[in-house]
Design brief:
It is a single chain. The chain has 611 residues and is an alpha/beta fold. The relative contact order is 0.07. The N terminus is likely disordered.
């Protein structure tokens, strides 16, 4: 809702007397209200400002302005009474930016108060003008902008703020606090003649799903404006805009969003991309215990209806047809329809299984990937491949079904067991060998990433997704006669055979199998004269440096060369009965070929440790 004034802000009309435009404080940084409470703040629910607490890290109100994200405006959104103007003026002073109040700007432009605009022209007319004013301000030089309570509900306003690169800050407070702060305000059109608490609760239900799309959420509660301002400043300083990588398919294009703190904000990030706010979540028991409560809370706060939460046992053993049936039954029994989105929360197993369920349920349901493992974030969540394993081999039943969006919250990587984190690096190393310069980065920074360095992990996820999205866009369904998406199978012909021989029992993780496969692919390339003899050693040395197995003999069980070859001949990449391999000429120079003698493959397997 729009209001004549937010808590502590400059009103459009007080006690029936219009405030002259010349007294508007929207651009006046010298106004005493910047660092002191307005004359009516205490009576509107804000206590008088205390001295800044000492020894608690709080800065005095007169502290020097802090850095702000360059070229970006700070836009405060939230309910009436949340304190957007009071906090906004103080924040502007601390950041050294002009402060603007959207309602004041509208009143100055219209020559009448917000209440008069509502009375004379109606809310729809006001909202249209409000949207244009906010879009104009957002497109200009950086400011701190306080918006009316209903402004951020408008989809066009939210889009304009996103496109302008503004940082949106949602100030949250509960109903008793808001009710106290707006008490006595007669100039709020949507409150006239109505019970304030009833109006506030109705607004919360209607508006919170849209406020949830803000970049930052801050609970302001009973804190003084100065304390809330300092907390807001810290939140802005510590915030990093997530990276958004487009997967620009001709049909079903989507984004991969990479950053920290995405799970609590899932509602706001997902809602623009889904046909409804009805979802069914599929996870495994281990991941659900760690991350489902955070995701659930974020979705519910954003107005989502969680129709079902289906959990499966962790591990590759869940990628089977019988488990697919259980997932489908769980989703459909909850009343899901074609506008209900299936959310995969977990690693590659959950993503493949939930994605396949979404592809076949009701002949197709919207699908969201929220990968929580390194392997899933860098590889399996992007590209739309879904499926389950059969006794004959890995991923032999499945479908292409692209997600509506991928949310890769890198904070989840800190919860991974060390072995799971290392396994994900197998796919990162593969992408490095495919891309070229990324391989040199892997060699230099891989150990730091495996030690948990968040920036190194973020870079690995970003660059892997960048490479994979480009490959997928060029060859979505792996139909190119040579190269194309098939290049992403570097090392996988060997890896899938090793996994199948282990029976998907957890003794060999997918990323570990890929690591051994990369070593074998490099060795085969060298034996066939495609790359320099140094490459097999270089690849294996890097894999060992990050704690991955690099050779068959490094694995905890033995393998038969004959059995592995039998598995490889059933691989889904086989064409006309001929095995196909991805080989290397060097980093950044991979190619596909069927011109590989079976005897050379068998000899390599035996030399590397197979019986």
């Amino acid at each position: 809702m729009a209001s004549g004034a937010k808590a502590g802000g400059p009103p459009g009309r007080r006690g029936g007397r219009a405030v002259l435009a010349s007294r508007a404080v929207s651009r006046n940084l010298a106004d005493p209200l910047v660092s002191q409470p307005g004359p009516d703040e205490a009576q509107n629910g804000f206590p008088p400002l205390p001295a800044a607490p000492s020894g608690e890290g709080f800065a005095a109100p007169s502290a020097a302005p802090r850095p702000v994200p360059p070229g970006r405006s700070i836009v405060l959104v939230g309910m009436p009474g949340a304190g957007k103007s009071a906090i906004g003026r103080r924040l502007a002073a601390r950041l050294g930016l002009p402060f603007l109040d959207a309602d004041t700007e509208i009143e100055n432009a219209a020559g009448m108060t917000v209440a008069e605009i509502f009375a004379r022209y109606g809310e729809a007319h006001f909202r249209d003008g409000e949207r244009r004013v906010i879009a104009r301000i957002a497109a200009g030089p950086p400011v701190v902008l306080a918006t009316g309570g209903g402004a951020y509900v408008d989809a066009r306003t939210r889009r304009a703020l996103r496109e302008a690169g503004a940082v949106t800050l949602w100030l949250r407070a509960d109903v008793p606090v808001l009710k106290r702060r707006i008490a006595g305000r007669s100039n709020r059109p949507l409150f006239i003649g109505r019970e304030p608490e009833e109006v506030l609760r109705g607004m919360m239900q209607a508006r919170y799903p849209f406020y949830a799309e803000a970049d930052i959420a801050l609970d302001c509660g009973e804190d003084t404006p100065e304390v809330t301002t300092i907390r807001a400043e810290r939140a802005i300083a510590g915030w990093q805009r997530p990276a958004r990588l487009p997967v620009a398919l001709s049909a079903n294009a989507y984004e991969v969003v990479v950053g920290s703190g995405l799970l609590p904000r899932a509602a706001g990030l997902l809602s623009p991309h889904l046909p409804s706010r009805r979802v069914a979540i599929v996870s495994d028991a281990s991941v659900a215990a760690l991350h489902l409560p955070v995701l659930r809370a974020g979705l519910l706060e954003g107005g989502f209806d969680i129709r079902a939460e289906v959990t499966v046992p962790p591990g590759e053993g869940s990628k089977r047809l019988s488990m697919l049936e259980e997932v489908l039954e769980g989703i459909l029994a909850a009343g899901a329809d074609r506008k209900t989105s299936v959310i995969a929360l977990g690693g590659g197993v959950v993503g493949d299984l939930a994605g396949f369920a979404a592809a076949v349920a009701l002949r197709g349901m919207p699908f969201v990937q929220i990968p929580t493992t390194l392997l899933a974030q860098v590889d399996s969540s992007v590209g739309g491949k879904t499926g389950v394993n059969l006794r004959a081999g890995k991923n032999l039943a499945g479908a292409f079904h692209q997600p509506r969006i991928v949310l890769a919250d890198t904070d989840t990587l800190a919860t991974l067991p060390a072995r799971e984190l290392r396994a994900g690096w197998g796919e990162v190393a593969k992408h490095g060998l495919l891309q070229g310069p990324l391989w040199e980065w892997c060699e230099a920074c891989g150990p730091a990433a495996m030690a948990g360095d968040p920036e190194a992990l973020r870079h690995a996820v970003l660059e892997s997704c960048r490479l994979k999205s480009g490959v997928v866009v060029a060859d979505e369904r792996e139909e190119a006669p040579e190269g194309g998406r098939a290049l992403l199978n570097l090392g996988h012909t060997f890896a899938h055979a090793l996994e199948a021989e282990c029976g998907y029992d957890g003794t060999l993780l997918h990323g570990e199998a890929v690591a051994v496969g990369l070593g074998l692919a490099a060795s085969l390339s060298a034996r066939l004269g495609h790359c320099a003899q140094e490459w097999p050693g270089r690849v294996m040395e890097h894999l060992a440096a990050v704690g991955l197995p690099a050779r068959i003999q490094d694995l905890p069980r033995g393998f038969s060369a004959e059995a592995l070859l039998g598995r490889m001949r059933k691989d889904k990449k086989v064409r006309d009965g001929a095995m196909r391999f991805v080989l290397l000429r060097g980093a950044g120079e991979a190619f596909t070929t069927a011109d590989v003698p079976a005897e050379a493959v068998e000899a390599l397997l035996r030399d590397e440790g197979a019986a």
